[in-house]
Amino acid sequence: MSLIEPGSGPGSGPGSGAATPDAAPVLRLVGIRKSFEGTEVLRGIDLTVHRHEIVALIGASGSGKSTLLRTANLLEQIDDGQIFLGDDDISDPRAKADRIRSRIGVVFQHFNLFPHLSVLDNVTLASRAVHRASRVEAERRGLELLDSIGLADKAREFPDRLSGGQQQRAAIVRSIATDPELLLLDEITSALDPELVGEVLDLVRELGRGGTTILMATHEMAFARDVAHRVVFLDKGVVAEAGPPAQLFEHSENPRTREFLARFTA
Amino acid sequence: MSLIEPGSGPGSGPGSGAATPDAAPVLRLVGIRKSFEGTEVLRGIDLTVHRHEIVALIGASGSGKSTLLRTANLLEQIDDGQIFLGDDDISDPRAKADRIRSRIGVVFQHFNLFPHLSVLDNVTLASRAVHRASRVEAERRGLELLDSIGLADKAREFPDRLSGGQQQRAAIVRSIATDPELLLLDEITSALDPELVGEVLDLVRELGRGGTTILMATHEMAFARDVAHRVVFLDKGVVAEAGPPAQLFEHSENPRTREFLARFTA
Amino acid sequence: MSTTGIDARPPSSIELDRRAFRRQQTTRSTLIAIVSTVVFAVAAWIFVINTPGWSRVQQTFLNWDVAVAAFPRVIEGFWLNVRVLIYSVIGVGIVSLVLATVRTLRGPIWFPLRALAAGYTDLFRGIPLIIVLYLVGYGIPGLGVFPRMPAEFWGTIALVTVYSAYVSEVFRAGIEAVHPSQRLAARSLGLSYSQSMRRVILPQAVRKVTPALMNDFVALQKDVGLISVLGAVDAVRAAQIETAAYFNFTPYVVAGLLFFLLALPMIRFTDWYTARVRRREQMGSIV
Amino acid sequence: MSTTGIDARPPSSIELDRRAFRRQQTTRSTLIAIVSTVVFAVAAWIFVINTPGWSRVQQTFLNWDVAVAAFPRVIEGFWLNVRVLIYSVIGVGIVSLVLATVRTLRGPIWFPLRALAAGYTDLFRGIPLIIVLYLVGYGIPGLGVFPRMPAEFWGTIALVTVYSAYVSEVFRAGIEAVHPSQRLAARSLGLSYSQSMRRVILPQAVRKVTPALMNDFVALQKDVGLISVLGAVDAVRAAQIETAAYFNFTPYVVAGLLFFLLALPMIRFTDWYTARVRRREQMGSIV
Amino acid sequence: AGASSDSASESGYVTDGKLTIGTAEPAYYPWVIDDKPESGEGFESAVAYAVAGQLGFADSDVVWVRSTFDEAIAPGPKDFDFNLQQFSITDERKQAVDFSSPYYETTQTVITIASSPAAGATSIADLKKFSIGAQTGTTSLTAVEDVIKPDSQAQVFNSNDDAKLALQNGTVDAIVVDLPTAFYLTGAELDGGKIIGQLPQAEGTTGDQFGLVLAKDSPLTASVSEAVDALREDGTLDELATKWLGSEDTAPVLK
Ligand SMILES: Nc1ncnc2c1ncn2[C@@H]1O[C@H](COP(=O)(O)OP(=O)(O)OP(=O)(O)O)[C@@H](O)[C@H]1O
Ligand SMILES: Nc1ncnc2c1ncn2[C@@H]1O[C@H](COP(=O)(O)OP(=O)(O)OP(=O)(O)O)[C@@H](O)[C@H]1O
Ligand SMILES: [Mg+2]
Ligand SMILES: [Mg+2]
């Protein structure tokens, strides 16, 4: 798998190491609250993602990880708190949601690719429809991206001809085709055959090295530990603990964190 | 989770350790061949499962694990070879398929429980319909089994009210409710949330300790190593290597085995 | 206007500001909708209702006096439609289940019955109901082998003949739509073909086809009006008679509304049920 | 009779024995099927065909001479049905797409149009076609605002009116059946509501509803025969005229067969396509 | 009253220089012989040509079109100058279409077949218990409901064809049609056809008068009526009636 070239991410520091907390914040969540039918799912979340940083969101099923990512992308309206993308308060109802979403890339667990479009059309759709790139230009860049993940020969295929891992990689590439400032990944490997998980995580690793800013919810503890600069442990709608992986995974003093992690080391 | 009592399995050696190869063979596959539309998926498989033994079937996606399990249960007609259950040649077309299937328990990856029946009815259906047990007797035993896996309080619920892990455990319990001689498990955890995998594998482990004979296809290498008495590595429709887990996982000299296992230790 | 959370902490001032803005937006939207509706209504009034043609339309199709005069006869006819509907539903239920069951029979000995059932289904899915009505309603009594029966009887027979073909096909499709692994699971438990059919496949199939069945029921509800061609004085024929008497089409509108009111609950229920099934599927618990 | 595998190794003697047994079983099954069919046919012959009633039935419904005599008129009428069908399909396509589009419009300003479209859809899903036919076919010309048009024209209008309501509803259901995450994915890419509608949701919706659309097409194909009640001499009315002339119902059978032959390819195609879609779904690639 | 010199709009004719006459599809004996109105054979066909002659048209200028009964008397534009298929003149219909003065007067007649239980009926009271059919929208239906008042609901058919089929196959016991049709059906079409009798007029009404139907407020109504009046006065109508319909007083009037 060839490397994503530096410059394909928004920042260009090639192989930049762990981002420092004093880098510019890309996403800032302040006191986010969200209820569904009377149940409070997010109960005051504060979280900042800095430029070039990879933040892993871990937590039990139902702890609110997906909900948090969806609020960050304005797919869910929050009940209180504020969300900043760069300097803009995107939780303000006066903000243009479509404009903002085009600055954020998202990949979910399932159903990411559009089944009626070829892989290349999937990758180039946003450039053409939203950013008004010419088809030639969009396809040139799309093919380049697909080539970088070894899928150039599948460009004209439809998604259902690809394996699950190939589909997820294409979905990731699609989400970065428009140079978003931030990439949100929601358990992108949990519907995959265990064998195919590796190739998808490798791609995320590459992207991180290329400087892409990533906030990802994951159940792959090993991956979170290896790749994330910072891990945030969500428990029942609050941030129970946050810090570098080494600290959380090995020296956490929070009993809930330890209990949660214990389930993965059977 | 309470232990499955000895005696609930067909053999009763409580906590019997690794079965010895000279125990009575429960399932014996001899030179099994199977093609789909001109592609040979199984190319001469020889495999024996002895009483009280847990055999793990590993191999890449598409190597034929599921097909092998289905042929063993007569859900797929083989093209050549012979299948013995105990002393009976069950691949003989003169054999009564329904009778034979009722001697084998099966759990798949997906869609195991019948969504229109309560959990208890799921568990007792076969006893009542096939073995003509009275409803009272069947339900007594069914509740006992559900109780042993901590699901007694869910007995009257419908499957869609259960978590994935609970559903799979109920499916396993259903498959042993009629005391089958052999249990076939096909990647029973691969559609589960990682957190729920543990409880299902724990149940399999209990069953093994209780003496149930199990042949299972799995992608959970750690589990195969811990629990199986013997591991069979299937590669492109042939048994590439078979042996105790320690040998396969640590000292295999087969390059294909090593390559396959390498993918899981990223 | 307060937080929906369990701990009802007061929302921040920013949130209060956002809510005020959203409320304002909602008010604006409502106003726009009202204004738009009024403008639209006025435009419609000026360009349609206020024209001389409209009073003609109103006179011809929406004449209150005619509606009142025609109502007793139309409602009496409609009652016949309802009775025919009830008998037809019962008949269709029985015949289509028999057909569907015959089509699931296995074994070579049943081949001719299976083939016959399949042929029947095919044939009557392809022939217009009105032709079947004429054939059954005028042709069969002419054979002189059956005692004399009223037109609505033969109409019911024709409806049952045609709709059983549709409905048995719906059942068949439902049986096939049950995921194959359910059949495998049932067989793996040792259930025989017919046991797994009866205890596992059919119950699920019936649920799956409920929306389709309800659609067919709505269609049947409306096609019941066709028995009028056999001479039965149902709502449609009654409306026709009244229309001929007054040269005014309001009686048809009255009959149409009666059918509409009969069908509406079922249509709403079908829509609701279909949406619910879809929502469940889309939630997609996959284990 | 040889292995289907690529390396054509000779099967073992056990396998050969099994195959021989299975072949024997197949032969036995075939024999049983043949015997059963013959027995069934003979029984049918004895108990049905051989009875005096049957010759009456044959005479009344399956009279070759009458069929030959009626055929020219019926086929000419049928050609009118086909033309009406073609125009109706075009009309339904246009009107229902407009209706479905109107119903996807967002924003308060469109409220009256949306409500109107929704009301239209509801209304005409609930009213029997035959009533709409009478209203449109006899009522509208009576307003005196339209030039004189043939009965088949008004029949086409009525068919389009009713079927557009069904079909636009099918489209709407299709739009809702597209998995919500597709909409989320499209919006996450920054596509606007209307862009995601046009480029992501609608193309998938159209595919999803193809089976339902085909079903509606088959239904339309048959309901075209109802224009006969307006006096258009289509196949049904032609058959009626011929039947009255001979007091023999064969002309209806001829017309019915013509409709059946027209519908059969579509029915087969619909079944095939529906099965294909289902098979794909059941394979269930979930990523 | 030649029409050839006037323009279509002024003349009021559907086709300038032609007289377009509508009749049923199919048209029946004895009104039209063999469903061929162009031949001038049959009562209505002959009347049509006589009227055409009065209006100054040559036989070759007559164009025939077909329409159903309902279609012809429903309001709306017409593709015929006048239409004749036994339309009884009623006040309700006059709101929708114009009628010429009557060209024939008849009564409604109950007919049946020998195998029907109604075959023995001899009075209106006898008929009450039977199932009686008639064509929708006709005065025959009105006669069933107003004069016979059967115990069970009348059966109502789209056409006399359907009513006749229903009588033949036994779904109704008797049907009501106009007298000439009754002669024709019982004489030629029905096996064992039998006329039970004519229905008396309801109080204060005349017999059923057949008129030519014209579009509502047609400019031709007056001239067509004049033509019919002229034909009645010179005895042509009686002559044609005798020729094509035979004598009509052979059926008893029911009490
Ligand atoms: N649209 C919704 N309506 C109602 N409840 C919802 C909705 N979306 C999420 N929830 C509820 O919110 C809670 C948090 O869900 P969420 O999907 O965010 O959890 P998660 O941490 O992503 O879990 P998982 O690891 O299973 O993906 C759950 O209890 C869920 O049932
Ligand atoms: N019914 C079938 N028709 C055609 N091909 C089939 C069928 N079932 C399986 N195959 C093919 O047989 C091969 C082996 O499939 P099988 O499901 O046994 O693999 P597997 O080892 O279980 O893989 P996985 O780990 O993905 O479950 C695959 O190439 C598959 O496409
Ligand atoms: Mg989630
Ligand atoms: Mg498998």
From TrEMBL, chains A, B:
<dbReference type="GO" id="GO:0005524">
    <property type="term" value="F:ATP binding"/>
</dbReference>
<dbReference type="InterPro" id="IPR050086">
    <property type="entry name" value="MetN_ABC_transporter-like"/>
</dbReference>
<dbReference type="GO" id="GO:0016887">
    <property type="term" value="F:ATP hydrolysis activity"/>
</dbReference>
<keyword id="KW-0029">Amino-acid transport</keyword>
<dbReference type="InterPro" id="IPR027417">
    <property type="entry name" value="P-loop_NTPase"/>
</dbReference>
<feature type="region of interest" description="Disordered">
    <location>
        <begin position="1"/>
        <end position="20"/>
    </location>
</feature>
<dbReference type="GO" id="GO:0005886">
    <property type="term" value="C:plasma membrane"/>
</dbReference>
<keyword id="KW-1003">Cell membrane</keyword>
<comment type="similarity">
    <text>Belongs to the ABC transporter superfamily.</text>
</comment>
<keyword id="KW-0547">Nucleotide-binding</keyword>
<keyword id="KW-0813">Transport</keyword>
<protein>
    <submittedName>
        <fullName>Amino acid ABC transporter ATP-binding protein</fullName>
    </submittedName>
</protein>
<dbReference type="GO" id="GO:0015424">
    <property type="term" value="F:ABC-type amino acid transporter activity"/>
</dbReference>
<dbReference type="InterPro" id="IPR030679">
    <property type="entry name" value="ABC_ATPase_HisP-typ"/>
</dbReference>
<dbReference type="InterPro" id="IPR003439">
    <property type="entry name" value="ABC_transporter-like_ATP-bd"/>
</dbReference>
<dbReference type="InterPro" id="IPR017871">
    <property type="entry name" value="ABC_transporter-like_CS"/>
</dbReference>
<dbReference type="InterPro" id="IPR003593">
    <property type="entry name" value="AAA+_ATPase"/>
</dbReference>
<dbReference type="Pfam" id="PF00005">
    <property type="entry name" value="ABC_tran"/>
</dbReference>
<feature type="domain" description="ABC transporter">
    <location>
        <begin position="27"/>
        <end position="261"/>
    </location>
</feature>
<keyword id="KW-0472">Membrane</keyword>
<keyword id="KW-0067">ATP-binding</keyword>
From TrEMBL, chains C, D:
<dbReference type="Pfam" id="PF00528">
    <property type="entry name" value="BPD_transp_1"/>
</dbReference>
<keyword id="KW-1133">Transmembrane helix</keyword>
<comment type="similarity">
    <text>Belongs to the binding-protein-dependent transport system permease family. HisMQ subfamily.</text>
</comment>
<dbReference type="InterPro" id="IPR010065">
    <property type="entry name" value="AA_ABC_transptr_permease_3TM"/>
</dbReference>
<dbReference type="GO" id="GO:0043190">
    <property type="term" value="C:ATP-binding cassette (ABC) transporter complex"/>
</dbReference>
<feature type="transmembrane region" description="Helical">
    <location>
        <begin position="249"/>
        <end position="270"/>
    </location>
</feature>
<feature type="transmembrane region" description="Helical">
    <location>
        <begin position="123"/>
        <end position="140"/>
    </location>
</feature>
<dbReference type="InterPro" id="IPR035906">
    <property type="entry name" value="MetI-like_sf"/>
</dbReference>
<dbReference type="InterPro" id="IPR043429">
    <property type="entry name" value="ArtM/GltK/GlnP/TcyL/YhdX-like"/>
</dbReference>
<keyword id="KW-0029">Amino-acid transport</keyword>
<dbReference type="GO" id="GO:0022857">
    <property type="term" value="F:transmembrane transporter activity"/>
</dbReference>
<protein>
    <submittedName>
        <fullName>Amino acid ABC transporter permease</fullName>
    </submittedName>
</protein>
<keyword id="KW-0813">Transport</keyword>
<keyword id="KW-0472">Membrane</keyword>
<dbReference type="InterPro" id="IPR000515">
    <property type="entry name" value="MetI-like"/>
</dbReference>
<feature type="domain" description="ABC transmembrane type-1">
    <location>
        <begin position="78"/>
        <end position="270"/>
    </location>
</feature>
<feature type="transmembrane region" description="Helical">
    <location>
        <begin position="84"/>
        <end position="102"/>
    </location>
</feature>
<feature type="transmembrane region" description="Helical">
    <location>
        <begin position="29"/>
        <end position="48"/>
    </location>
</feature>
<keyword id="KW-1003">Cell membrane</keyword>
<dbReference type="GO" id="GO:0006865">
    <property type="term" value="P:amino acid transport"/>
</dbReference>
<keyword id="KW-0812">Transmembrane</keyword>
